[in-house]
Design a protein that fits this description.
The chain is of the alpha/beta class. Helix content is about 30%, strand content about 25%.
């Protein structure tokens, strides 16, 4: 428990809850998990594997940490999940990739949940490459809870602005400014052991990932990204932040071909092993392009303040048959109206706790 009495977000129960309530339904909607075999690389104590086992036929978990795997049955029993359809296998670091590849052609989904950021660059690219090879040709690679190195706040490791964007050597020199005492102390001990130990420890704490890593392995990402966390089904766990919209605006100018997920602070996406014949229609963020406005203003916090009764004109980033409206209000319900040329006039109500993220969708 935290000092405020809230559940530790990294506890077994909280990790299981987030996966069970948010990510598993999202993945299930995208690809259907019934009858599927899921292989999780980096299973840890198995909280996420147990969440996926509730809908999949079978979940196989691999990990290099024997202690985590030894503790997993106790956690599972304590949460009433002792009979979950989960198989756990320990493999040392030097053997785990070969063990991973040994499942080639026998699994439908490779799950990389909160793991890619803890690998070295060489390991990360190799795991992504092998993930494509391990699943069936029509299989999928699911990535969740991976921090995006292109978003300036580092919520994952250092809690320093722009830290994820620094090259490793510069990050090692700068990290003593981090407010995280445990991070500073662990890294100081590693640095004292020499450059190799320092770089290894920094990687294991977690570094950001971006579209570059995926593009090197998958090529044209438009034909591989099937689902992203811009879907409103994940907004309760992934509310929209201003820095994500700002990054989306920059990517729209620099790389308009990229799927929209690569502007989010956390990378949660479903990829196909083989390229899709058609590029799927994905929810894309509005990138702050607007026309004449009344009762609306752009704030220093990179968002739009809309007064009651106010409005503004926008250009959608692409033709759309669905528009998702996301906002924060001091009310529990906010009425919204969307009008367009040709007589379109749609009303929606966004509901949520006051001062918390809310959304509504219209078609």
């Amino acid at each position: 428990m935290s000092a405020e009495g809230a559940e530790d977000p990294n506890s077994w129960g909280e990790r299981h809850r987030r996966a069970r309530d948010h990510f598993v339904p999202w993945v299930d909607e995208a690809i259907g998990l019934a009858g599927k075999v899921v292989l999780e690389y980096g299973v840890g104590h198995a909280p996420v594997a147990c969440a996926f086992a509730a809908r999949a036929e079978r979940v196989i978990g691999l990990d290099i940490d024997a202690g985590y795997l030894a503790d997993a049955p106790g956690y599972m029993a304590g949460h009433g999940l002792a009979d979950a359809r989960v198989e756990l296998h320990h493999h040392p670091l030097e053997e785990v990739l070969d063990a991973f590849s040994a499942h080639r052609g026998t699994v439908d989904v490779v799950l990389l949940y909160a793991v890619l950021e803890h690998l070295t660059l060489t390991e990360r690219l190799e795991v992504l490459r092998r993930a494509r090879e391990v699943v069936h040709p029509q299989g999928h690679v699911v990535v969740c809870e991976t921090p995006n190195r292109l978003v300036w706040p580092d919520h994952h490791t250092s809690r320093l602005p722009f830290f994820t964007m620094l090259p490793d050597d510069l990050a090692l020199l700068y990290l003593d400014r981090s407010p995280r005492e445990d991070f500073r102390e662990t890294m100081a001990a590693a640095i004292a052991d020499g450059p190799a130990a320092a770089h290894e420890a920094l990687s294991r704490w977690g570094r950001g990932v971006s579209f570059h890593d995926f593009e090197l392995v998958f090529g044209d990402l438009r034909r591989h990204v099937l689902a992203t966390n811009w879907e409103p089904a994940l907004f309760a766990e992934r509310p929209v932040h201003a820095e994500e919209v700002v990054l989306a605006r920059a990517l729209e100018q620099a790389r308009p071909d990229l799927p929209p997920v690569f502007s989010r602070a956390w990378l949660d996406l479903v990829l196909t092993s083989e390229p899709m014949a058609e590029v799927p229609a994905l929810v894309r963020p509005w990138t702050l392009r607007t026309g004449v406005a009344g009762g609306a203003a752009y704030t220093p916090w990179d968002n739009v303040l809309l007064e009651a009764g106010g409005g503004f004109a926008i250009d959608l980033p692409a033709p759309a048959d669905r528009v998702v409206l996301a906002l924060v209000s001091d009310r529990e319900e906010v009425g919204l109206r969307l009008t367009a040329a040709g007589g379109l006039d749609l009303a929606a109500v966004a509901r949520g706790a006051p001062h918390a993220a809310a959304h509504a969708a219209v078609r």
